Amino acid sequence: MSEAMEQVNEGASADALADVPFSAVAVIGLGLIGASLAATLAAKMPGVTVFGVDTDPTTCATAVERGWVSAASGPDDEAFRAFIQGPCQLVVIATPVAAVDDYLERLRAWDYRGVVTDTISTKGHILAAAAEILPAPERYVPGHPMAGSEQNGIAGARADLFEGANWILCPDETTLPEDFQHLHELVTGIDARVVSLHREEHDQAVAIVSHVPHMVASSLMQLANAHADDSRSIMRLAAGGFKDSTRIAAGSPKLWCGIAFDNADALRAGLDEMAGIIGSFSAALAEGDRETFTRLLAEAAEARRALPAAWVPSTEKLLEVRIPMVNRTGVVAEVCTIASSVGCNIQSIDIDHISEGNAVLSLILTDEGDVGQLSLQLINAGFSVSFSPLMPKEYAHVDE
Question: What pLDDT is stored for residue 399 in this prediction?
Fold first, then answer.
């Protein structure tokens, strides 16, 4: 056995492993997102054994030196295969889309039947590839952390990257309830918050809130650069607002070109809609229409002020939702997607198995969102629901 695998198999104590949803995780791709995930797992879930995979030996060495992974190797190293066929319970694919098929093929060749998720910002290709290639496609749950940096690679990675960030999970009717529960525990355990989306809605949603904004930021820099003279004086006038608005334009052009073309249809639709909105401002100016111009600004200002400054749920207003599950597939995906659609944040999920075909899904909600709409939509969807307030002392994961 290699020295790397000896380090991996040392593992953690039984007490530490009892507190983690997955005891052994393979993070494939140690760029900004993958390395940051490894770093935060090392910091917040030290009972988890993390094996890193990257094509760059220096990156692998850096991750080991920083203590973010127990061991790391290239994709062709025997240690990678041994980890997948041995202790691995979760594989996280954090590579560009172009590398996905190769790793899925490896998982098939090694008959890996554990949970698989990813951090890729577009889902069209990986959804089709996972369904076709993985030996247990029902255990693939698409994921996407809505976090990032203008810095690239492991050099920009940090353990607090996901704190307070939304992390999209896309379960469907085939997702095993326990798999989603464990992924939810992992994500909330690193202080991110889960947002559930239907898989077919993911690419359209992230085009609006992530991909279009990046292109707008790049366009603003193109505009400013086109008007900069040799002395670059206009750039010295750029105040904090301009710098904040264009920060993401410093991201990797190669990476973002790949993202754009992977999500071309949704991105084009969003850019066309954005052009129409900008055109409305231009038309109002051309027509001297101050009322319309003011209304457009006011609508944007009101929407911006409605965004939460930070995730600070009140621990005095926790709510437990209990939903019986009787021989009904897809219940976890349906319930969690409904909760996300009305702005409710699920703090934790528990599944109480009463008999072989019966269980109760228990959700702990924070004080966010429209609970009335949640109740109405769950009832309309055919669920029997009960709500009860929960004091912090009743909930072991909330500090008093």
Answer: 42
